[in-house]
Design a protein that fits this description.
The chain is of the alpha+beta class. It has helices at residues 8-16, 54-68, 77-85, 102-108, 151-162, 178-183, 212-220, 237-249, and strands at 17-22, 45-46, 89-95, 118-119, 121-127, 133-141, 167-173, 188-192, 203-209, 231-234, 252-256, 261-263, 266-275.
């Protein structure tokens, strides 16, 4: 186990990045503005109710379009405000324009010498009715712009701490790239395996812990523990519907025990099972 607080790539990122928070000023005292010891400077505590925040919020919208636009899942600007910036807090890392590509500077409308901070990652989680539980709405990263892999994972760990979240629930596509990032936080409780309520029914609803020890481990880059798989589920409609029916019986907790595995006859996910006490 590493003795250092952050993995080497994350330490390098913090040499040229600063954390930011977007939330109304009246909410700041309820947030952890030093997540895992990384202080959010006063200049990057952005109040979305102020005219002065307009340019930075435009950059966040453009960042989201860069990461989710190709999947037709980019958020309209009003969704950021209604679902993220007012009821919760948006967190991420920002860097100077000189550290990003000329193409991205053109997208953001900044010059290489501009003394501004432009966002390159973001994390959004929305509080649920259960105290301490948040629903993960968005994790976006352009970490490749500064040559850092896994910066979305680091941003998520810090963002969960900003919100003081105890547990995190979210939705992800079984074949999506983000699934590997979520598994860095440990085995994922599978709350739904096939989700007709979502635009993409082959979506799982997952849950994992976000206690300080878990977030510190992720930030160090240490591997999570993984339970043994009881069986593997084929990631097609029939396989996922069968698992969904088992979930709905309510007598067993199923968890995703690792990344899906490609076989000759399709893609399969390892599933752990734990009988629930009546």
């Amino acid at each position: 186990m590493s003795k250092r607080p952050f993995a080497e790539p994350f330490r390098r990122a913090l040499e040229i990045c600063q954390p930011y928070i977007v939330a109304p000023r009246s909410h700041w005292d309820d947030l952890d503005c030093r997540p895992l010891g990384v202080a959010v400077p006063a200049a990057l505590r952005i109040d979305p109710t102020r005219l002065a925040s307009e340019r930075f919020l435009t950059w966040i919208e453009q960042l989201d379009a860069q990461t989710f636009g190709p999947q037709a899942m980019a958020m309209p600007r009003w969704v950021f405000y209604d679902c993220c910036e007012w009821p919760s807090a948006l967190f991420g890392l920002a860097t100077r324009p000189a550290n990003i590509s000329a193409q991205l500077r053109e997208t953001f409308g900044v010059g290489p010498g501009d003394r501004v901070w432009v966002p390159i990652t973001l994390h959004v989680a929305i509080p649920t009715v259960h105290p301490g539980e948040f629903f993960e709405h968005n994790v976006g990263s352009l970490g490749e712009q500064i040559g850092v892999q896994g910066l979305g994972t680091f941003t998520k760990a810090l963002g969960c701490r900003v919100l003081r979240a105890r547990t995190l629930v979210g939705a992800a596509q079984w074949t999506g790239r983000a699934l590997g990032m979520h598994l860095r936080f440990g085995p994922l409780d599978v709350l739904t395996a096939y989700t007709p309520a979502h635009s993409y029914p082959r979506t799982l609803t997952y849950r994992h812990a976000t206690d300080v020890e878990t977030l510190q481990r992720v930030a160090r880059g240490d591997e999570p523990s993984s339970p043994d798989a009881a069986f593997r589920v084929k990631l097609d409609d029939d396989g996922l519907r069968r698992l969904q029916r088992r979930i709905e019986r309510g007598d067993t907790q199923y968890s995703l025990a690792g990344r899906p595995i490609e076989r000759r006859n399709g893609l399969f996910a390892p599933i752990a099972a734990r009988t629930l006490t009546p």
